[in-house]
């Protein structure tokens, strides 16, 4: 069962926004060094930070004996 903090986090994450904020590397200053390095490599400054996305996947899961 979801607790009150989880519900608050979910409400914040799913709230509508006017538009995405832009990525600012300074916002990652409090994160661990490996995370800061990855973000600096993977996300350019100024890129819009969308709060959600929808992914569609396809495939199958092989059940039983497999290698």
Report on this model:
31% of the residues lie in helices and 6% in strands. The protein has helices at residues 4-14, 33-42; strands spanning 21-22, 48-49. The chain has a two-stranded antiparallel sheet. The mean pLDDT is 86.
SSE topology sketch:
Blueprint: H1 4-14, E1 21-22, H2 33-42, E2 48-49
Antiparallel strand pairs: 1-2
Key features?
67 residues; mainly alpha
What's this entry about, in short?
This protein is mainly alpha-helical and 67 residues long. It is built from two helices and two strands; from the N terminus they run αβαβ. 31% of the residues lie in helices and 6% in strands.
* Stretches with pLDDT under 50, minimum 5 residues: none
From N to C, what is the helix and strand string?
HEHE
Write down the overall geometry: extended
The radius of gyration computed from the alpha-carbon positions, rounded to a whole number of angstroms, is: 18 Å
User: What share of the residues does DSSP label as strand, in percent?
Assistant: 5-15%
In DSSP terms (H or I, runs of 4 or more residues), the helix count works out at 2
Give the strand line-up of the largest sheet: 1-2
Could you report the average pLDDT, rounded to the nearest whole number? 86
Number of DSSP strands? Answer: 2
Largest sheet: 2 strands, antiparallel
Distance between the termini: 36 Å
The helix-and-strand class reads mainly alpha
Instruction: Name the helicity range.
Output: 25-40%
């Amino acid at each position: 069962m979801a607790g009150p903090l989880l519900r608050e986090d979910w409400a914040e994450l799913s709230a509508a926004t006017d538009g995405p904020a832009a990525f600012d590397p300074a916002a990652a200053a409090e994160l661990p060094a490996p995370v800061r390095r990855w973000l600096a490599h993977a996300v350019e400054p100024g890129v819009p930070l969308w709060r959600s996305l929808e992914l569609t996947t396809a495939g199958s899961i092989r059940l039983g004996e497999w290698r």
